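Reviewers of the previous submission asked for a worked example of the structure-prediction workflow described in the proposal, so we include one complete record here. The input consisted solely of the amino acid sequence. No template or homolog information was supplied to the procedure at any stage.
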Amino acid sequence: MQNLEAKFKLSDLAKARGKAESLGYDFKAALRQRDTFFRVPRGKLKLREDESGACLIDLDRRASDDLKLSSYEIMPIEDPEAMRAILTAALGVLAEVRKERTLLTKANVRLHLDSVDGLGAFGEIEAVLDQGADGERSRADVDDLLAALEVRRTNLIGVSYADMLRPV
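From that input alone, the workflow returned the following structure tokens.
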């Protein structure tokens, strides 16, 4: 699967939610997530846990200060504690990210409004490009949402939360 992503700092998550809802984005969920990132030779491998369950995500994207194209695979995990222990022993942990996430969607575009422990408030837009989604239309949808949220392309963040949390 692939998606087009944009990440940016926000000063007011409630205001951002209101602007997105005025564009037709619908609230889908409020989640408390724990992402454990493991040391791997390429890309990122993370175990995501929240109230709805757990999954292992293999993610390949290049750091960029603009929109990022990401490829990823997701596998549901029935026993996240055992999986975390096995992967920690085999690979080591790179970082752990804990966040409160509000998820809003419109068509194939997801807006994540995140309050990340130790980092603050962020927005993350993902336009899912599977199932025949139009890449150019998706790029336009992402640009429209960025404009509504008053986010300039020069303010996009090119690294993951895990990278931001790692010591320099």
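DSSP finds four helices and eight strands in the chain. We consider this example representative of the routine output the project will generate in years two and three.
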